[in-house]
Write a structure and sequence with these properties.
Layout: H1 12-25, H2 29-32, H3 36-41, E1 43-46, E2 49-52, H4 60-72, H5 75-83, E3 110-111, E4 114-115, H6 117-136, E5 149-153, H7 157-169, H8 173-178, E6 183-187, H9 192-199, E7 207-212, H10 219-236, H11 241-244, E8 245-248, H12 252-258, E9 265-266, H13 281-291, H14 293-312, H15 319-333, E10 338-340, H16 345-352, E11 370-372, H17 384-389, E12 395-400, H18 416-433, H19 437-442, H20 450-453, E13 461-466, H21 471-492, H22 503-522, H23 531-543
Parallel strand pairs: 5-6, 5-7, 7-8, 8-9, 10-11, 12-13
Antiparallel strand pairs: 1-2, 2-13, 3-4
Helix pairs in contact: 1-4, 6-13, 7-13, 13-14, 14-21, 15-21, 16-21
């Protein structure tokens, strides 16, 4: 009988870290932060970015032990395997090459013996030409009007990544000028309310729809696409679809069958995972239609800067490696499974929410993180109570030196941005140091309130300071977190690039869909489900019995 593959937790370096936890539990960040040499060594600068991880519950010895863990996990070799195009996504037998999407034109990155960079740039050049045509009015709609509004239809990575970049660019001065007179909206949820909100105030004559689906079979995306196709056809006639709808897909046959000209299809490749696809046509096409390709190219260059850094920098100067190792320390050793870093929920939780190794062995340790967050000071009035006095949750604080939209008011002590950044600098210290009963007593706090006002501190965080939030910096930030997540997966020994966990729910939803159709059109009773689901489905059908069995087309009206 073949022996089981060795898990990382069986390595001496893992066991050494497990034993080291007891030493760290005896220390407090109040004490660790008094060591200026330690703090200095826990700051890393690269390309305008400053990372400070001195408020992690870790000593210099901890960091060295984490580096040894990385060596035991063959981290450098695994990173090289990714950049070399090896099929590290073993369950789907694919390369993982999102780094090729933002590589320079002269770079050489192979997948299955072929340099994929020329193909990437062929698509980027096509996007540049097409988006410029739409923006300058040489590509017009069916009635001769310019197309100034774009609705991008996609879900998961085909929606979240592009939306993050768009949200960040909306207030950037350069991006505002580039987007003047234009709108970009994203339609992901299959809820008809979302359709209504997305087309509210839009004129089909001036609207372009980008349908984003690799296979052109994603259920939610295609239903939304058919809905907007009907919206366009009802107003302008079926022939208008080819002028008002384009696709990001690899399935040219289904694209053409849908009514979209295959020449207006922008491909990407099976070595691009959905949640890592924002730098492909998935994100670059809608963003270029809104902001112009030159600005989006700056975003790509920012991501490429981090790609090169991740591939070449030593561990102690490598921002994504350090973030990944600290995540492993917090999750698998200190037992803190949650963290804050806005907008990366999908990339992190879909990638590393795994319970077995890449070889299929059940893992006897925790992997994955629970990711959530809020911009600015919003979090202070929602979940900061929990992170200060409830459970310990590692936090990432991301700050920006220069505001996109500075505000100065005469007579105010500080500017609005300085007020924001005051909290950026204060919160990590508040989490680290806390407040002791002795301090409260010296402040004459009533004895009965001291337990309620005591803060234990010793709560880990890290701070990442960006020079600004322009297209280039947004690209850097995105790539940092993509690679941080890869580091975690490489060391845990899991496949961060598949997502079988999302399939079961889809399969069961298909069964429910068939039942709803049979009940609506043939009056068939609900059957084949457990008692609970049968009861809920029956109640739903009874309460919505006014839904016609053979409905005519009805579109939202707002």
């Amino acid at each position: 009988m073949a022996s089981s593959p060795t898990l990382i937790c069986d390595k001496e370096s893992w066991k050494d870290l497990k034993a080291h936890v007891a030493d760290i539990k005896k220390t407090h960040l109040r004490d660790l932060m008094t060591d200026s040499d330690r703090c200095k060594s826990m700051m890393v600068e690269f390309d305008g970015l400053l990372l400070d991880y001195s408020r992690q519950c870790a000593s210099l010895e901890t960091i060295n032990k984490l580096f040894k863990l990385a060596e035991a996990a063959c981290l450098k070799q695994k990173i090289n395997h990714m950049y070399n195009g090896e099929h590290i996504n073993s369950t789907e037998n694919r390369s993982v090459l999102h780094v090729a999407l933002r590589a320079s034109r002269d770079a050489v990155i192979h997948s299955d013996g072929k340099n994929v960079v020329p193909d990437v740039w062929n698509v980027l050049d096509k996007i540049r030409e097409f988006s410029e045509g739409v923006r300058n009015g040489s590509w017009i709609g069916a009635t001769g009007k310019a197309l100034k509004d774009v609705v991008a239809i996609g879900i998961g990575g085909s929606f979240l990544g592009p939306l993050v970049v768009h949200s960040a660019l909306q207030t950037d001065p350069e991006a505002i000028e580039c987007a003047r007179g234009r709108q970009l909206r994203f339609l992901a949820n299959v809820d008809p309310i979302d359709v209504a909100k997305n087309i509210a105030g839009l004129n089909p004559e001036t609207t372009m729809v980008v349908v984003i689906s690799k296979t052109f079979t994603t259920a939610e995306t295609m239903l939304n696409a058919r809905t907007l196709r009907e919206w366009i056809s009802a107003a302008l006639g079926p022939a208008a679809v080819s002028k008002h709808m384009v696709a990001v897909s690899t399935n040219l046959m289904l694209v053409e069958k849908f009514g979209i000209d295959p020449n207006n299809t922008f491909p990407f490749w099976d070595w691009v995972g959905g949640r890592y696809s924002v730098c492909s046509a998935v994100g670059v096409l809608p963003l270029s239609l809104q902001y112009g390709f030159p600005l989006v190219e700056k975003f790509l260059r920012g991501a490429s800067s981090i790609d090169l850094h991740f591939h070449s920098a030593p561990y102690d100067k490598n921002i994504p490696v350090l973030l990944g190792l600290l995540s492993i320390w917090n999750v698998s050793f200190l037992g803190y499974p949650a963290r804050f870093a806005p907008h990366i929920q999908q990339v992190s939780m879909e990638s590393n929410g795994k319970g077995v190794s890449i070889d299929g062995e059940p893992l006897p340790f925790e992997t994955g993180e629970i990711d959530f967050g809020e911009p600015g000071t919003n979090g202070q009035h929602s979940f900061y109570q929990l992170i200060h006095q409830g459970r310990v949750i590692p936090c990432d604080f991301i700050g920006v030196v220069k505001s996109q939209q500075p505000v100065y008011l005469k007579g105010e002590v500080v500017s609005n941005h300085d007020e924001l950044m005051s909290n950026f600098f204060a919160q990590p210290d508040a989490l680290a140091y806390g407040k002791t009963p002795e301090q409260l007593q010296t402040e004459n706090v009533p004895q009965n309130l001291i337990p309620h006002k005591t803060f234990s501190g010793n709560r880990p965080s890290l701070s990442l300071l960006l020079p600004s939030l322009n297209a280039y910096n947004i690209g850097q930030l995105l790539a940092i977190y993509e690679h941080r997540i890869a580091v975690e997966g490489f060391i845990w020994g899991i496949n961060s690039f598949d997502q079988w966990g999302v399939e079961l729910g889809k399969s069961l939803a298909s069964q429910v869909r068939k039942q709803l159709n049979a009940s609506r059109t043939k009056g068939e009773p609900v059957k084949g489900f457990n008692f609970s689901t049968t009861t809920m489905l029956t109640r739903y059908l009874q309460a919505s019995s006014d839904v016609p069995s053979q409905p005519s087309t009805l579109l939202p009206k707002i």
